[in-house]
């Protein structure tokens, strides 16, 4: 496949929907890659598009999540409680020694409740600097993308 075919496949509705759906917190690339493949995109295009889409919100979450949680605490008792629950949930996943390795593994393992959004929220609550947290989360997203792509392509059925 040459560059023109790659861009044509990626910039069609299927590629755009795959990209945008990978940015949604619950779906992320765990749903976007299978969607892209089911819609007719080659698996590697689905994986690449979904990985980039899933990584895109991470720096914004790391940079602004702390401010948003602090703002929520000042607006109402209900929002304050919600912010407190989110912070407590992120702190309960504290990674202690090997924080960055733990963050990578947390994002890379494709299970419900893990992924780029939760990893970025944890990084923000733990006040990890963007320059350290972002590459680790991006690597975790790439690893999760490879795992999901392999499972989607049927390698998981061969292994089990």
What would your notes on this structure say?
By secondary structure, the chain is mainly α. The chain folds into 2 domains: 1-47, no CATH class; 58-148, no CATH class. The chain contains 10 helices and no strands. It is elongated. The relative contact order is 0.14. The model has no long low-confidence stretch (mean pLDDT 86).
Structural class assignment: mainly alpha
- The low-pLDDT segments are none
Instruction: Determine the fraction of residues in helical runs and give it as a percent range.
Output: over 70%
What is the 3D shape? elongated
Radius of gyration: 17 Å
Major sheet, described briefly?
A: none
Q: Ends: how far apart?
A: 31 Å
Q: State the helix count.
A: 10
Mean pLDDT: 86
How does the SSE layout of this entry go?
Elements: H1 3-11, H2 13-21, H3 28-38, H4 43-55, H5 58-75, H6 77-92, H7 99-108, H8 116-125, H9 130-152, H10 155-159
Helix pairs in contact: 2-3, 2-4, 3-4, 3-9, 4-9, 5-6, 5-8, 5-9, 7-8, 7-9, 8-9
List keywords for this structure.
160 residues; 2 domains; mainly alpha
Short description:
With 160 residues, this protein is mostly helical.
